[in-house]
Automatic annotation (TrEMBL):
<protein>
    <submittedName>
        <fullName>Uncharacterized protein</fullName>
    </submittedName>
</protein>
<dbReference type="Pfam" id="PF13041">
    <property type="entry name" value="PPR_2"/>
</dbReference>
<dbReference type="Pfam" id="PF13812">
    <property type="entry name" value="PPR_3"/>
</dbReference>
<dbReference type="InterPro" id="IPR011990">
    <property type="entry name" value="TPR-like_helical_dom_sf"/>
</dbReference>
<dbReference type="GO" id="GO:0003729">
    <property type="term" value="F:mRNA binding"/>
</dbReference>
<dbReference type="InterPro" id="IPR002885">
    <property type="entry name" value="PPR_rpt"/>
</dbReference>
Length: 988
């Protein structure tokens, strides 16, 4: 422990929140809850800026109403100054926009940056703490009214006065105090950044990032381009270049160019800077190209960058593939680059799997990648699940997926909850998620309320809805506009107008009043006109002007009472005004009862309605029962289904009416494979049989389309077989649907086989259901196979149950395969058990693969040292480098950084090893330096130490160690790799 009497000059950034205006009738408990929420928001807001300004090692202390960021390193002062300026300018606006909190409900920030002499002590829990002048000064400065400005003292002014415009502070204490606030208050205020001084500073990348964060992209680009020009002598010849090279940051070093490039946030500026970097003779690196690829405006630009780097002999890494897959225009292109990554010896990361899930064309494909990710030993995080949830075809499936997320112990965030609200089947269900959010301490934002009020609120009186919404802590006006639009969409214009009267200044309200009130006035004028005769034409005119459906319907009742018979025009007008498909459909039945026959126009108006409550099959069945053979209304229905996102239902209609223009267009867009297959059948004159239809079912992009083909083959007297049903069961969106197909098979006297049952077992979410299916197999003398038992093992609740299936598998003469043992190793409760199963795998003559070792090394390795793990692994006939990444991660997860470093010593080139070096640079440097003291000829330690220094941004210090490694290594591949690395450093 450091002696108590040793003082340090500590630099402290104090960020304190001044109390905002308190809402009326807010209790003290509610006020404290609001203050806590704002502190959480501030902490989350700080995280990315702390990382990007390279302040990750700084000491952070919560003060009760803000935070102190403290360091005894004077070279961190510019970064702290930048952080203060970013917060002062951005915090309130960004929080107001994200959470919909009114500006007068947000606290102003009192930000101060100052120095003080502190002592560093060790607390009882072993943590280190600063005590002394800095904290006292923070308390004093918090008493001064300098909101949304950065107050600094003379010491800070001397350190950053060149880069910032400085003004004398004119703040006065907010409260009277006996403390010596005069000294504290005699400070300065940080003003605008001086662009020329930012160029000349030793850390221009900090100011480039700050300018970008403030939205000053042109200025950020100007600073970057000026630095680049000076470095290559464009601005002032050799003298300028020489002066630039002595600025304190070795920017002629590739590392320096790369750091500057990484702080540019728009592609044109970054690309121009990159071109100058190359012109300066700086060695381009994969990181530079990755930065550009990530900023590229489209896939083709990113791809051309990768092609350029490959021409320069630079090999793509995982970040390169991440950028290409993320920017891929569609799923197939993303899969193509995934294959390239694997062929290049790479392993997909969790981020890549998340991107593939986001681009997947449907839920089943996304779920496949989630399962593949788990099989690869990668733990999906919430971001991955959030990408899969929107693809779920129904709310029940979303809830099942949510159960699996929570079973993993993953806490839901605002993005998840917002999607759950969107997927909810109705308004009440969606609203219930707000209670779940509250219990999970997740605060709703603007998007939450917009999604909620986009649900069908037609049964909610506007008065009650508004009262509830205003009771919410944050109730900005934007969601009120959403509610108005929703009411109008569902035909409740009266309720929409009720909100418009309360909020007449909103754009949606103004438009509504302007449009609807014209109709209202016209309607009233018609009623007042005595010239309107009480005949069908007169009533039709009144009904056409009625602002609401219920009002229009009341005039229909008036007609009947006066003995006036409504005609086709009457009903067509009413159908147009009906607030939903069901009410419009009821009008068709009513008109038939009145002896009025519907026309093509009638059905077109009907099918223009929101068809979300009806399936295509139900629609066709009903329409054909109307004895109407016109196809034009079906075209309208196809458009309506597609408009509301029910493409599967639109395709179902298109397949029954393929001659329609809309059907052809839809089939071309969504069913290229099916169309191609149909064309083959037509040209070859092949009569469709069970094989034909089973193939079509297998190609169907949606389950509903597959079922439609089943109905078509039945209609043509082609009997489905087990293959047909097995394909349908595989495509079924959930277990319940799949199980219903099993019952349907039996009703058609088609016997299920081992494929049927194995597929059903793999689809069930519950172990009990899986065992019930297996028992049914036995009763029916269906012989299980390896796939069956593998599925049962995966569904097993624990390792012992999974092993019992292995024993049964042997008695049934099914041969275990690599998937069998990989599943058992995955289920094993600890490393020893998993290793025993691995030995059993070898005795069975089954070769392990990368997944086997990944799952084995993902266990708790605390009973084994890294030395033992490595010795054992190298004895295996097949021991690729990749699984050692899982071992390094496992040791790191347990806090055994020393053991992780032992593996890194032998495998420093692995991505996980490089990340360990970055995150634990101090321990890594000490570890490898100690190894070299004990054995100066240790080439692996010299290589690893060189890589740690490169990862820490000290490339020049790395070079001697790398040269030493070249001299000592006995491995030709390692020597070549290090020589290439040193060659790159020499060209910087």
């Amino acid at each position: 422990m450091e002696p108590f009497d040793r003082q340090h000059l500590v630099y402290c950034l104090s960020i304190q929140m001044s109390e905002p205006a308190t809402p009326e009738r807010e209790t003290s408990e509610a006020a404290l809850a609001r203050q806590d929420r704002l502190n959480v928001i501030l902490a989350e807001h700080l995280k990315p800026h702390i990382y990007n300004l390279h302040l990750s090692d700084i000491f952070v202390k919560f003060t009760g109403n803000g935070f102190l960021l403290m360091t005894d390193r004077s070279d961190s002062v510019p970064a702290l100054s930048c952080l203060g300026v970013i917060l002062a300018n951005n915090f309130n606006d960004e929080v107001a926009q994200a959470f919909g909190i009114a500006q007068n409900r947000l606290p102003a920030l009192r930000i101060s940056l100052f120095s003080g002499h502190d002592r560093r002590i060790e607390m009882p829990d072993g943590k280190r703490e600063w005590v002394g002048d800095s904290l006292r000064k923070a308390v004093h400065l918090a008493m001064f009214l300098h909101t949304d400005r950065v107050l600094v003292d003379d010491s800070i002014r001397g350190l950053v006065g060149g880069e910032f415009k400085i003004e004398r502070c004119d703040a006065e204490p907010v409260i009277e105090t006996d403390a010596d606030t005069e000294a504290a208050g005699s400070g300065w205020v940080l003003g605008q950044l001086d662009l020329d001084s930012s160029v000349d500073s030793g850390s221009p990348e900090l100011y480039i990032y700050t300018l970008s964060a403030l939205g000053r992209m042109e200025d950020a680009g100007h600073v970057a381009q000026t630095v680049a020009s000076r470095l290559i002598g464009d601005a002032g010849g050799e003298d300028a270049a020489a002066e630039a090279s002595g600025q304190g940051l070795e920017l002629k070093d590739t590392q320096g160019w790369g750091r500057l490039l990484s702080n540019l946030t728009d592609y044109p500026t970054a690309n121009a800077f990159f071109i100058k970097a190359k012109a300066s003779g700086a060695q381009t690196t994969v990181d530079m190209y990755n930065t550009l690829a990530a900023l590229a405006p489209d896939f083709n630009t990113a791809k051309s960058l990768v092609e350029e780097m490959e021409r320069e002999g630079i090999r793509p890494d995982i970040a390169t593939y991440n950028a290409l897959i993320a920017k891929a225009p569609d799923y197939e292109v993303a899969r193509y680059w995934l294959r390239n990554l694997i062929e290049d010896g790479g392993r997909p990361s969790a981020h890549i799997y998340g991107t593939l899930i986001a681009k997947a064309p449907d839920f089943e494909t996304g779920k496949f990648w989630l399962e593949t990710m788990a099989r690869d030993g990668l733990q999906p995080n919430l971001a991955v699940f959030n990408k899969l949830i929107p693809k779920a075809p129904g709310y029940d499936i979303v809830c099942a997926l949510l159960d699996s997320v929570q079973a993993e112990g993953i806490k839901l965030n605002i993005v998840t909850y917002n999607m759950l609200i969107s997927k909810a089947i109705d308004f009440d269900t969606a609203k219930s998620w707000l209670d779940a959010m509250a219990s999970d301490s997740v605060n709703p934002n603007l998007d939450t309320y917009n999604r909620l009020l986009s649900k069908n609120i037609s049964s909610q009186p506007a008065e009650e809805l508004l009262k509830w919404y205003l009771s919410q802590e944050n109730h900005s006006e934007e969601p009120i506009q959403t509610a108005m639009a929703t009411y109008r969409k569902y035909g409740r214009v009266d309720q929409s107008l009720r909100l418009a009267v309360e909020y007449p200044h909103l754009p949606v309200a103004k438009r509504l009043i302007r449009e609807i009130m014209d109709e209202v006035f016209a309607y009233l004028n018609i009623i007042r006109e005595e010239s309107v005769r009480p005949n069908v034409a007169g009533y039709n005119a009144i009904i056409s002007k009625a602002p609401y459906f219920d009002t229009a319907k009341s005039w229909l009742d008036s007609m009947r009472k006066k003995g006036i018979q409504p005609d086709i025009i009457t009903y067509n007008i009413l159908i147009s005004k009906a607030p939903g498909f069901e009410r419009a459909q009821a009008l068709v039945e009513m008109m038939r009862a009145d002896g009025v026959e519907p026309t093509i126009d009638t059905f077109e108006k009907l099918f223009e309605k929101d068809l979300s409550t009806v399936s295509a099959d139900e629609l066709i069945l009903w329409y054909r029962a109307q004895e109407s053979h016109a196809e034009e209304p079906i075209e309208t229905a196809i458009v309506s289904f597609k408009r509301i996102g029910r493409v599967d239902q639109a395709l179902r209609l298109a397949l029954d009416y393929p001659r329609l223009v809309g059907a052809k267009r839809l089939i071309r867009e969504y069913m290229v494979e099916v169309l191609s297959y149909l064309e083959t059948i037509r040209y070859e004159g092949v009569k469709p049989n069970v094989v034909t239809y089973s193939s079509l079912i297998s190609k169907a992009p949606y389950y509903d389309i597959a079922v439609a083909w089943l109905e078509t083959m039945r209609a043509r007297d082609v009997k489905p077989n087990a293959v047909t049903y097995n394909t349908l069961i595989f495509k079924a969106p959930d277990f319940e649907t799949a199980h219903a197909l099993l019952d349907e098979m039996r009703s058609e006297a088609i016997e299920p086989n081992v494929i049927t049952y194995s597929t059903l077992i793999s689809k069930t979410e519950e172990y009990e259901s899986a065992t019930t299916l297996f028992a049914r197999m036995e009763q029916e003398d269906v012989q299980p196979n390896t796939i069956t038992f593998n599925a049962l093992m995966l569904k097993s609740p624990d390792y012992d149950v999974a092993c019992s299936w292995l024993e049964m598998m042997k008695t049934e003469h099914s041969k275990p395969d690599v998937i069998t043992f990989n599943t058992l190793i995955y289920k094993a409760p600890d490393y020893e058990t998993a290793e025993a199963k691995f030995r059993e795998m070898g005795k069975a003559g089954i070769q392990p693969n990368i997944v086997t070792y990944n799952r084995l090394f993902s266990k708790d390795l605390s009973i084994k040292s890294a030395e033992e793990i490595l010795a054992w692994y190298l004895e295996q006939p097949y021991h690729p480098d990749e699984p050692l990444q899982a071992a390094i991660s496992a040791y790191r997860k347990m806090g055994r950084v020393d053991q992780a470093l032992r593996l890194t010593h032998d495998y420093p080139h692995l991505q996980v090893a490089r990340k360990l070096m970055r995150d634990h640079a101090v321990e890594a440097i000490a570890y490898f330096e100690d190894l070299l003291v004990r054995n100066p000829e240790d080439s692996d330690a010299a290589y690893a130490l060189g890589l740690v220094l490169i990862e820490s941004g000290n490339a020049q210090a790395a070079k001697p160690h790398l040269l030493k490694a070249i001299t000592c290594t006995k491995s030709d591949p390692q020597r070549k790799a290090i020589e290439a690395l040193v060659g790159g450093l020499s060209r910087r």
